[in-house]
Amino acid sequence: MAAVEETPFTNPQVDLATLPNYKDLHFHAINKRNLSKALLQTGIFALVLLTANLLIYVFFSLAFWFTVIAGVSALVVILLVTHCIFSYKAFGYALRGKDIAFKHGYIVEEITLIPFNRIQHVSTSRSFLDKLFTLSQLNIYTAGGQGSDVTIPGLTPDLAKQLKQELANKISQSTDAD
């Protein structure tokens, strides 16, 4: 029986100063039509609130409560519009040689880096409003489970399809390398 030559196990420490800094990434913004879509949704919600307020006033003749509810509703709509604007500005994505990065959140910024070898499936989707505003979403499903899946909203259909194809190519390259 031939002796198996063992190579010594090594696990050198990585110098953290040599690692690339993800904060140096140039994130691409999502399409401005996504902001218009979010503002339309907020406008529809505002109309529902206004209708409910008017019904309370007409059917119950509660002028004081109408004023209180109208004031609270106006505040909620202002907060929602502000949220739409800040959320739009906070979205971004970047494609690198070995991973894709996605950022969102304006109070707490969250950046998710997904290595290509962790991506299991990529798809695009479009809601009714997405079709109305000529938008798509890119859905990235990972080996990490639902908590690590990413959806990038506000892409044009052509860009979403192009990114999907590029990620599919990267996935097959990383699978072939294994």
Q: What's the Cα radius of gyration? A: 24 Å
Say how many strands there are. Answer: 6
The helix/strand order is HHEEEEHEEH
Helix content: 40-55%
Beta-strand proportion: 15-25%
**Helix/strand/pairing class, anyone?**
alpha+beta
Task: Please give the count of helices.
Answer: 4
Distance N terminus to C terminus?
30 Å
What is the residue-averaged pLDDT? Answer: 89
Q: Biggest β-sheet: count, sense, barrel?
A: 3 strands, antiparallel
Question: Largest beta sheet: what is the strand line-up?
Answer: 1-2-3
Can you walk me through this structure?
The radius of gyration is 24 Å and the shape is elongated. The longest helix has 28 residues. The protein is 46% helix and 20% strand. It has 178 residues and is of the alpha+beta class.
Highlighted features:
178 residues, alpha+beta, three-stranded antiparallel sheet, 4 helices, elongated
How would the blueprint of this fold be written?
Blueprint: H1 33-60, H2 63-90, E1 92-95, E2 99-104, E3 110-115, E4 119-125, H3 128-132, E5 136-142, E6 150-155, H4 157-177
Antiparallel strand pairs: 1-2, 2-3, 4-5, 5-6
Structure summary:
The protein is of the alpha+beta class and 178 residues long.
